[in-house]
Structure formats: C-alpha cells, structure tokens
Amino acid sequence: MGDKSYDPGRSREEWTRREFLKLAGAGAAYAALGGAGVLSLPRSVLAGPKVVNLNFTVWSYSIDTIQDNINKFQGAYNGAITVKLNDVPWPQYHETMVNRLSNKTALHVLYNGGDWLPEFARAGWVVPLEDYLPRARTFYAPKIVGYALQDMTYNGKMYGLPYYADITTFQYNAQLLKDKGVAKPPATWEELADQAKFLRGKGIESPIAFEFAAGLPTTYDNFTAMMFGRGGEWFDKDLNPIFDQPNSAARQQLTWLAGVVKQKLATVLPHETDVVKAMNTGRHVYTVLWNYNLADANNKAVHPLAGQFKVALMPGSTHETQGQCKFYNLTRYAVDQGQETVDAALKFIEYFGGEYQGQYSIAKRWAVEKGLGFGQLPLFEDADVKKSFGQWIDFDMFKLQASKARARRHAVWEGIFGEFARVQLVRAISGEAPVDEAIGAMAQKVKELRAQFK
Amino acid sequence: MRGALKMARGFELRPDRLRPAGWRTDTAMAYALAGGALAVVALFTIYPVGYALVGSLYTLSPILPRSFAGLSNYGLIFGSPYFGFALRTTAVLALATVPAVVLLGLLVAVLLSRPFRGATLVKVVILLPWTIPAATGGVMWKGVFADAWGALNATLYELGLVHNYIAWLTTPRLAFLATTIAQVWAQFPLAAVLLLAAMQAIPGELYEAAALDGAGGLRAFAAVTLPHIQPMLVVVTLFEILVALTAFDLIFALTGGGPGTATTVLSYFIWAESFKMLSFGKGLALAAIIAGLSLVLIAALMRLMPREALVGEGR
Questions:
Q1: Which among B59, B260, B275 has the least Cβ separation from residue A430?
Q2: Transmembrane helix: is it a keyword of this entry (chain A) (predicted)?
Q3: What's the number of domains chain A is made of?
Q4: A283 touching B, CB under 8 A?
Q5: Are A310 and A295 within one domain?
Q6: Please, what is the angle between helix B226-245 and helix B172-200, to 10°?
C-alpha cells in the first residue's frame, strides 16, 4: 500500500482531495459560527450608517460644476446621502424625461421648467415641494422674484427651488455702434431695422444675429421675449390663443423677423454659442439672447471683442421681456420610496436651491462663475454677485430689465406646443412658409391639443 | 441507411399517393423544423407589425389615457399638410440621391476594376464612408457645412471666394443640398463595392472576344459589362430607393429636419410625431403608411422591369 502522505508524483504545494475537504469544512464551520455571531448583534449595529442614494437628472450644461456641487453636498452630509448625476442633451430633454418618467425610471430630483411643469404635474410625475417642505412656501417664496415663482407654480402650489432664473435681453456692441455714428440703441423693432439698414451702408452687411433653430427649445423663448417687448402674449388667461389675432404682437414680430432675414439684415444661427462667437467677429451689432450669454461675450479671456457688449431694454412698446426659472423638482418616484428618501431629496434640493448655513451658495456660485441669473431676491443685493455681474453688465440696467420681465402663461400641453411652434417659427423666419401659414398652423395645433387635453 | 432511404422516400411527392409513407411522423418533423424559424419570424416581424397596426388605431401617448381612435390617426395624417411636405421631400431626396449613388458607384467600380498599384488600399478607403455610422457621418458633415464655423465656409473665405459665410444649414434649399451630398457620400461606397463584385465575376474571355471583334473600351462596357451587371444594378437601385425612403439618422444629426421642415423626410416625421409630439399612435399610423407605400413602390418597380434585368441576360 505504501505511505499515502507522500506522493513523489506531486509537488509539496499541491493538495490532496482529503486536505482540501478538511480545510473547506473548517472554513465553512468558522463562517457559520461567525455568521451566527453577527446575526445575534443588535440590528442598529448590524446596519451600520444608513446611506440614501439619489438619482439627479439635468440637461447637459456645466456638468463638471454640477458634479463638484454634488461632491460638496455629499461631503456636507458626511456621505450619508450619495447622488448619481445623469445628464440629457438640452434639445432632447423634454421627450427624454417624458419617456423616463412615464416608465417609472428611478429619478428622485430633476431639473424642470415652467413650460413642462403643468404636463409633468398633471401626469403625477412630480410633486409640489411645499407639500413636503412647508417652509418652501412660508420662508422661500417671499424671497423669490415674481417670474421665477410663477414658473415654479402650478395650480397654486410651489413645486421647487430655483436652479437659475434668467431673463432674455437685447444685447448690442456699444463700441461698434458708436464707431459707426449711431448715438443710442434702438427703442423699437422698427427703429432697429432702420439702424440695421444704416449700418449696412457703413459696411456691416448683416448687423443683426439671431439664434433660431427648429430643434432648439430656446427658439420659442427668444421669440416670446421679442413678442413680450411689444406687450404680446401667446394665450389669454383661459389659455385661448391670442397670437393668431389679425394684428397680434406675435404676428407683427414674426412678420418683422421674416422681413429682416429676407433682406439679409439679420443672420440666423443655430445656437447661442454660435451667436456669441459671431458677435465677436465684429460683423454683427445686435442680438437677443438669454442674458447669461453676455457674460460669455464679455469674457476677455475668451473673446476678442469682450467688453464692448451692453444690454438695452428689449425693443418694443412695453420693453417687457421673458423671465423664466429652471428649478429642482422632487419626483413622485422619490416620494414612493419612503420618508428617508424624501428627507434626503429635500436636503439636496434645499442645499442646491435654497439656503445652507445662511447662504444661497450654489445659486450664487452659478451667478458668479457662469453669469447665470437667479431667482433668489437676496442675491440681487449680494456684494459678490454685484461685483461679478458688474464686470460684464450694467447691473442697474439688468435690474431694470428684470423688473419688466414676466413668465409665459403655461398650458398643460405647452411642452408639445413649444416643440411644434418652434418649427413653425423657423419655417416663417427662414422664408420656407408665409407668416400667415405658420401662425395658422400653430393655431390649428392649439385647437387639436385643447381637444385632446380637455 | 435504410431508415434514411425510407425517410427520403417518405418526402417524395407522388401523385398516386395522397399520404406518403410515415406521413404523421414526417409532418410532425416538418412542423417542428419549420416551427422554430416561424417563431423567430413571428416574434421579430409579425408581432411588431401587428402591434404597430393595432397601435395605430389608438391614442397612444405617455401623457394621455389610452383610448380607441379608430382611423382618426390616419385621418389626421392625410389631413395634415406636413405629411405632404414630408412625402414630397422624401421623393425629391430619393430622386436626387438614387441616380447619383448608382452612377457614382458605377464610375468608381469601373475605375477600381482595373488593376493598379495600391488598388486594395483605395478600395478600403472608398468603403470607409459606408462603414461610418450614419449619425456620425451627419455630425462630420455638420462640421463641413456649419454656417459660422464649418470647414467649407472657412475654405471659401480663405480662398477669397466669399466675404460672408454662406448659411448652408439655415437656408432651406442649401440645407437640402447639403443633405443630398451627405447622403450620396454615405451610400455610394456600398453601390461601388457591389457593382465591382459583379464586374469581377464577368469572365475575362468575353472582353478578349470583344477586343478581337474590334470593340473599344466604351463598346466593351456597353456590350459586355452592362448586360452582366444588370441584375446587380437593379438590386442596388432598389436598395438605394429603400434607403432614401427610410433615411433618418444622418438627417437627424445634420439638419434635425430643418430649417423648419425643409429636410423633414417621412422617417424623421415619424420620429417627430412620436417623440416630439408624444403621439405614438400617429407615429405608428405613419409607419404603417410608409411601409405600405414602400411595398407598393417596390412591387411596381419589380413589375415594370423586364425579367432579363432581374435575372441577367442569357441566364
């Protein structure tokens, strides 16, 4: 039989089956004893520190800054709340979110806007913030600028705290205007066309640059702001269309736009960054953009003509403009996850859009670093914000234009209408369709949508 | 061996026997064998088509309750001027791109069919546009045609040919031209490769015989090459018509269907109705209409073409 403990055919490192079984048995017994010991511990000790995980969805803008803010938030709460950031391209945000929310994707907090709020709220995908954080109404609402509060409100309920709130402004190259002998910026759209013709005679072939593209939600915003300058509106208080009336501000403005584009007094570009770059070539004098773009245009580290651009009141009879607010919104999904998740999400929303240790630190950061507008009234008096804004805008002019800003009236179907309207606006502006046809198509769409959503 | 022979005999069609030997077993076997394939076809073709057809009769939207709509989705589509625009744009795109793709593909195939140094490398390079995903191609062409920062405007400006950039993508006609160019660029390589393969299958003796008969290059092309590649030409043409009818991703990336609706083809229209207007019922109805149109068009073309064109002369 011989000695079974020694086998010349195997090395000393190799195990026999018996050795392996012995060791495995001992390991299993040890693990079982250990497991029993662990199970006998109190549940609180067993669970360790509870971590709540949140999913936060945004559109793709300054992702690095958002992530840095998230890191700071997680640090402030010692890792008890973790936040996973998801971003969606801005042009596809609406339809992407509709599909995710309708399919009950795990989203706890998301960026929302006044134009989509009625749709999301009616579908039950998002919930009013004030129902879960009563001080949203009592403490924060009085400190929020009117158009921002309006954009965050649906059926009398406040749904969020501002990510940013901005106005659309009329921006112009003051240096170029002065050099060409024009004393002051235009006060009306008709005066703008006259100045543009004058400047063409002075060698500037296309003095106006506008941002319009069928695929861009901002198209609808830009047009709305221009129409507001004439005192117009899309809908009356009962959400009946008024833009299709014979001499409506919308019809006047669209006719004006199609005219200046046809005469090549205005150039149409597909994105705000294109417009800012084009303005910095010195080939264009005027534009209409969300105000934060002026911070970019006047950034001396980036653009050659920085410092030459100023804001004037929106041309038109009332000089009104559009103000809007994008905000942090709590989802129904988060609520369904239970109180711990809701508490964590509320902490997150308040950290990002409200006060944390007496400071609107995140909103202020967006304002100071990126020039984003804000909805929190205390920031209008904040020394750091004033100083930062003062580097690229006349702050008093900014406040004056902000005082003339208002939000749009939002319908539950506005998300869909906005998609449709911007295509029609571009068709008319580019000369692809007559203005009356585009206005008629939009009115017909409203009729269809009202019938569907009655 | 005997079993195999028996089975083979069992499958023979004999007019004098209504029920072949081992009929029950063989039929079951036949059903079993075909069943798997049929199940796959049913799962991936019949079910989606059926689902689409049924869905097209409903109001389907993530923000509205589902309700039966009958044929109203079809009524809305046929009543909408945008269906007409999209149909016309698709037809014009097909008319502009298909002949260009086939002719360019043919020209390239002829050039590549002759041996020259570096032919393999050239073939690979020629095929590259086809291997690039259409959406990526769209983004690349956007880099070429972009109004303010595109390579084309920069080149024209540097050469002193323009003083201001040309609004390629924001002027309706120019945007359509840009789309056509990009579509031809993306499609001609496949046409060239298929036609080249057909050309290389032609026996060399035929060209030698043609040469002995005194035929020059053009004559040999007309008398030998064209008749032999005719079936492939038909296949390529039909394929390119289908590609033009279903073009989407390149257009989505390049123009987004705009400016306005200048480059909105039917496929883009389906996407916009479904995902922008959130009207999936209408999108499905549109898809059904387009599928029907494609079938009718292809059947008509097949019918109009002489049989020789489909099977090749003398084959």
A1: B260
A2: yes
A3: 2
A4: yes
A5: yes
A6: 140
